[in-house]
């Protein structure tokens, strides 16, 4: 073993200001995050919402928990187990049902992020139930066959749509064009 230093990556003078700006942004973010009261910083596994979106959470003692995830994941795991034990609908209907069940929730998510709909906890919870049923059946299919084309088509199709809506919504709120969502 030698005491040599790893080779350094040459950095041009043009790159230095960008790195300094990034370091400054990270330091500001860390300082802002540390300055927030602890109740505005929830652990990621309980809620992934920022302080301005804590109306999307319910309080469990001192912790905030995402409402949608509270319904989505327990119900999806129950459906996954039930579907794994024995199918409760003909598997020939999977291509239609597994595309249609999540669709209302995905549309609601996109319209909310586009500023067309205001957030509604009741609407969100009602639309999360069919999403959870679809997700549960998709998870059961995935456990049976990790290469299941239907699983991957539905997951990636909706992931792209929802990611796009989230990016548009984030940019919209950053530029101040949000309509109170």
Could you explain how this protein is built, in words?
The protein has 181 residues and is mainly α. The protein has a domain at 68-174. 60% of the residues lie in helices and 4% in strands. The protein has 6 helices and 2 strands; from the N terminus they run αββααααα. It has a two-stranded antiparallel ribbon. Strand 1 (57-60) and strand 2 form a beta hairpin. Helix 2 (67-85) runs parallel beside helix 5, helix 3 (94-100) packs antiparallel against helix 5 (121-144) and helix 4 (103-113) packs parallel to helix 6. The radius of gyration is 22 Å and the shape is elongated. It starts with 14 loop residues before the first helix and ends in a 7-residue tail after the last helix. Keywords: Membrane, Transmembrane, Transmembrane helix. The chain crosses the membrane at residues 71-90, 149-169.
What distinguishing features does this structure have?
single chain; 181 residues; mainly alpha; two-stranded antiparallel sheet; 6 helices; 2 strands; 60% helix; elongated; disordered N terminus; transmembrane; transmembrane helix; membrane
Order of helices and strands: HEEHHHHH
Overall average residue pLDDT = 80
How many beta-strand runs?
2
Using the alpha-carbon principal axes, give the shape: elongated
Share of residues in helices = 55-70%
* Poorly predicted tracts of residues: 1-11
Main structural class:
mainly alpha
Going across the biggest sheet, name each strand in turn.
1-2
How widely separated are the two ends?
Answer: 59 Å
How many alpha or pi helices?
A: 6
Strand percentage: under 5%
């Amino acid at each position: 073993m030698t005491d040599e230093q790893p080779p350094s990556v040459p950095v041009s003078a043009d790159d230095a200001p960008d790195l300094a700006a990034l370091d400054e942004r990270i330091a500001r973010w860390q300082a802002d995050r540390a300055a927030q009261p602890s109740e505005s910083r929830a652990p990621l596994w309980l809620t992934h919402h920022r302080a301005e979106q804590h109306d999307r959470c319910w309080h469990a003692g001192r912790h905030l928990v995402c409402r949608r995830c509270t319904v989505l994941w327990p119900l999806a795991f129950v459906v996954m187990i039930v579907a794994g034990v024995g199918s409760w609908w003909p598997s020939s209907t999977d291509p239609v049902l597994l595309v249609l069940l999540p669709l209302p929730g995905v549309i609601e998510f996109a319209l909310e992020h586009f500023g067309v709909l205001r957030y509604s906890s009741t609407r969100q919870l009602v639309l999360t139930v069919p999403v959870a049923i679809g997700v549960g059946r998709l998870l059961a299919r995935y456990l049976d066959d990790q290469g299941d084309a239907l699983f991957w088509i539905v997951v990636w199709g909706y992931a792209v749509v929802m990611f796009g809506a989230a990016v548009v919504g984030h940019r919209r709120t950053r530029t101040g064009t949000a309509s109170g969502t």
